[in-house]
Each structure stands twice: as C-alpha cells, then as structure tokens.
Amino acid sequence: MEFGKVLENEVPGIDFSFPQDGEQTLITLKGRNQIKDPAFYIGCAKWGRKEWVDMIYPPKTKEANFLDEYAKHFNSIEMNAIFYSMPKVDMVRKWKEKAEAGANNGFLFCPKFPQIISHLKRLKNAEEATDQYISGISEFGSLLGPCFLQMGDNFGPNNMPVLEQYLRSLPEDFKVFVELRHPDWFSVPSVRKELFVMLSKLNKGAVITDASGRRDCVHMELTIPEIFIRFVGNGQVQQASDFSRIDQWVQRIKTWQERGLEKTYFFLHQHDEKDTPILADYTIKQFNSYLGSQIPEINFITKQRELF
After folding, report:
1. Where are the alpha helices (DSSP H) in 23-159?
2. Which stretch of DSSP H or E encloses residue 242?
3. Predicted confidence (pLDDT) at residue 61 exceeds the cutoff of 50
4. Of 2, 38, 203, 302, which is most buried, counting CB atoms within 10 Å of its CB?
C-alpha cells in the first residue's frame, strides 16, 4: 500500500498524536451504553504473500492453499483483490469454502468495490457493474462482512451529490464503509460536516485510514457505532513507532467501546508486507489485553524472537 508513504527518515518527525473525536462521533455515540460483547475483526489486505511461507504458512505451501492457511490465523480479510476484477460466483464460493475449512472462530470477507465502479465510472452509470458486484459477493453468505468503497484522490467534494445518489441506490441492508482521500473532504469545515451527516443519515460508515503521510485521513468521525480502520505501518525499522500507534488505537477504541461501540474492523497494511504478521500479532495481543477481545494469537512457524 503506497498511499501516505513517506521516506523512512521522515517518520521520526511526524506527529502521530490523534485528534479529538469529531462532531459526528459525539452525535453517533450520544446516549449509548457499553454493550456486553463488542465484536473485533483483525486481518490483512490479502492472503497471497509468498514471504509468509515458513513464517505463518507451512513450508512448501502452494499459493492455491494460502487462503486455507491465512484463515487459521486471522478472523477477517480486507479483500483488495476484488478491486481489480469483478468477483465471479464460482471463485467466491471456492474462497468461502476454503475460509470455512480453515477458520476456527468464524471468518469475514470485507471486499473492496471494483475499480470499474469507483475509479473508472466514478459512481456514474454504474448500476450494471454494481449489480454484478453485489451478486458475486453475496455468495459469501454468512461470511460476508462490510464492503468498502474507496474513491480516488481526485474525487473531491464537488462530487458530493454523485456520492450521495450512489449510496442511496444501494440496498438499505447492504453494509458499506466509504474511504475518501481528497484533502478537501476533511479540511473544509462545511464540507466535512455535510459529508459525515450524510453518511450517518444513510447508515453508512466512514473508513479511517491511518497512514504516515496523510494524517488528515485520521478524521475520528464515526457515522455509525462501528469502525473500519486501515492501518498502514512503516516496517520493521520503524516497528516501535508502529506499535506506539497501535497502543493509541487501543486507548481510543476503549473510550468508544465504553460509549457503545459495537464492532471494530482493523486491517493492517505495510509498504513492505513481509512483516505484517508481526504487526498483526502485536495488535491482537493488545486488543485481547485491553479491549476484551478473544482473538487467538498468530501461530508463527519461525519463533518470534527470530523475527524481531
């Protein structure tokens, strides 16, 4: 994931402190009570990483079996692969079967909208493509989690009516989180307020992307009592910094949890994905220790002390 990437020597100079909760978050959580068993889903962006063989995948694992092994370690996947091609029913069924066979405590796929909808058609005249997308991913059945609609950097606030119209056209029970990247969505107060009020009224979530070079995307606006966080780490050299950021998320999520947060979807990325399982394992341990989640820790094939 290249979004928000900075030079390695720039990382120590970045202010990673979180802003206060946004105005819409205060509205969304107002009057809610802490629920007994909030749900937690932690995963990566893809399962097809050859670097994870001998690390979390057994030696000589074939690529065709990567998902089988991935599902033994994580309870969700932020599915970026679908961005590049429309999901086919037979393939989705195969993925579902593999995840069901490997998962211990349930599993969720959170598929990205295909680029033909978001980046090529830019949400206009996208009815047929959207129907195909929904038809394909519906084959995940009970394993289908929320989907996320990522718009390009050049999709700015002048497209607000297009975005709203498109979201209104989706089935009401179709759970969607929206990721926006143009800086004006967050820097212009009137635009920011209109955006998050609109998402709240339509019962759509707002993705929070924590990337080093785009701190404005850490907007801290909850439009529904659930969060979808895309965390972009900086690799093993900056591991202490990344762990510190995870700790900040644990603290913030805990405050939201105490005010009625129901579900947390936390997906881990790195510019070099080789060490992502290490970052994920730390995240799982912190969530289990301080947030009450009960997600199994990652079972490394190589001893952890050899990985650090």
Report:
1. 23-29, 66-70, 89-102, 115, 127-137
2. helix 239-258
3. yes
4. 38
